[in-house]
């Protein structure tokens, strides 16, 4: 975790160009699903609290749209921010070269990029925050990154405990425990802020099921013997457990769209612990890496909604037309 090696510069350049090409392909192929609504709202001039509480996208996108008169440019610009963030994370933690591509093909990212766009942006900042925690960077820097995440999508604020993990100690950090209990206790208040956004045809309980499998997989990787590993892997376990309880509580108390958002954020965050675990635990890395990538990208291919968002098909264009016709003024 540290300095940028010369080889990293070439790898990062290749990764960025490849992901940028993907962004151009997606954005210039028409706006699928809820992106049709995002295009419409670029020309809105309202400054209601709904927009002011998430200014990084709502206000930033309007400025860019006023300057360029191009929705495609606006969406590509925010794609670029996300790509830069995950490349920085990979470099900071010295994660394998496939990591950014795995993230982009992971179904929460696919759904976010083409559907819940503000969450897509926020997840990049949350991932950067996670890398800063692992690298034990200054609290002030972590707070700034966390604020960027929350002002991109307010649901990010529910992951406050992430900031307080102590990767140098096996014990539960007091601030992590206190903030976790506070978030879980206050979560019912979030139910008053309803969301009408379409987050795909995947039922909320599927997120719980997938997350359960991820926790089981994480435990099996280490055969539940975390004490023989560096303390960071015990801290990851605390994060898994918090996210799991948060997800279950969200499914029971919140609306379907809101609980799915929690699931998408939780699944996205746990890519880092799983990747790091696979890389240090197994010697036959090529075979294990292939299996790991296949398992994590399989849901994208299995879930019809996620797969359709990777394609430009007649069906997806119908979805776009439906999205454009929506007149609701709720969350996207």
How would you describe this structure to a colleague?
This protein has 332 residues and is mainly α. The relative contact order is 0.13. The chain is globular. The protein contains 17 helices and no strands.
Characteristic key phrases:
single chain, 332 residues, mainly alpha, 17 helices, 71% helix, disordered C terminus
Rg calc: 19 Å
Discrete helix count: 17
Overall geometric form? globular
| Helix-strand category | mainly alpha
Largest sheet: none
Euclidean distance between termini CA atoms: 37 Å
Itemize the secondary structure elements and their pairings:
Layout: H1 6-27, H2 35-41, H3 49-52, H4 55-68, H5 71-93, H6 99-105, H7 107-114, H8 117-134, H9 139-152, H10 174-190, H11 204-221, H12 231-253, H13 256-269, H14 271-281, H15 285-302, H16 304-309, H17 314-325
Helix pairs in contact: 1-5, 2-17, 4-5, 5-8, 7-8, 7-13, 8-9, 8-13, 10-12, 11-12, 11-13, 11-14, 12-13
Short description:
The chain has 332 residues and is mainly α. The protein has helices at 6-27, 35-41, 49-52, 55-68, 71-93, 99-105, 107-114, 117-134, 139-152, 174-190, 204-221, 231-253, 256-269, 271-281, 285-302, 304-309, 314-325. The longest helix has 23 residues, at 71-93.
């Amino acid at each position: 975790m540290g300095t940028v090696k010369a080889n990293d510069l070439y790898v990062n350049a290749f990764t960025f160009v490849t992901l940028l090409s993907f962004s151009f392909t997606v954005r210039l192929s028409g706006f699928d699903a809820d992106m049709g609504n995002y295009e419409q709202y670029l020309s809105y001039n309202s400054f209601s609290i709904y927009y002011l509480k998430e200014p990084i996208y709502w206000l930033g996108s309007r400025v860019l749209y006023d300057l360029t008169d191009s929705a495609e440019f606006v969406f590509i610009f925010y794609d670029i921010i996300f790509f830069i963030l995950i490349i920085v994370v990979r470099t900071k933690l010295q994660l394998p070269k496939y990591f950014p591509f795995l993230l982009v093909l992971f179904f929460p990212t696919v759904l976010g990029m083409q559907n819940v766009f503000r969450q897509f942006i926020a997840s990049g900042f949350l991932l950067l925050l996670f890398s800063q925690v692992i690298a034990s960077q200054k609290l002030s820097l972590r707070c700034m990154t966390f604020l960027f995440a929350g002002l991109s999508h307010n649901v990010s604020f529910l992951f406050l405990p992430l900031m307080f993990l102590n990767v140098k100690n096996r014990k539960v950090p007091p601030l992590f425990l206190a903030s976790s209990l506070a978030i879980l206790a206050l979560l019912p208040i979030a139910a008053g802020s309803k969301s009408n956004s379409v987050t795909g045809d995947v039922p909320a309980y599927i997120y719980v099921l997938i997350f359960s499998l991820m926790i089981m997989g994480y435990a099996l990787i280490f055969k539940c013997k975390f004490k023989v590993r560096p303390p960071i892997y015990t801290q990851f376990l605390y994060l898994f457990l918090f996210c799991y309880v948060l997800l279950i509580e969200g499914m029971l108390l919140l609306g379907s769209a809101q609980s799915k958002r929690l699931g998408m954020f939780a699944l996205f965050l746990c890519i880092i612990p799983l990747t790091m675990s696979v890389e240090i635990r197994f010697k036959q890395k090529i075979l294990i890496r292939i299996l790991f990538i296949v398992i994590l990208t399989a849901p994208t291919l299995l879930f019809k909604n996620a797969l359709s968002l990777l394609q430009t098909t007649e069906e997806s264009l119908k979805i776009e037309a439906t999205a454009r016709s929506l007149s609701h003024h709720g969350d996207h």
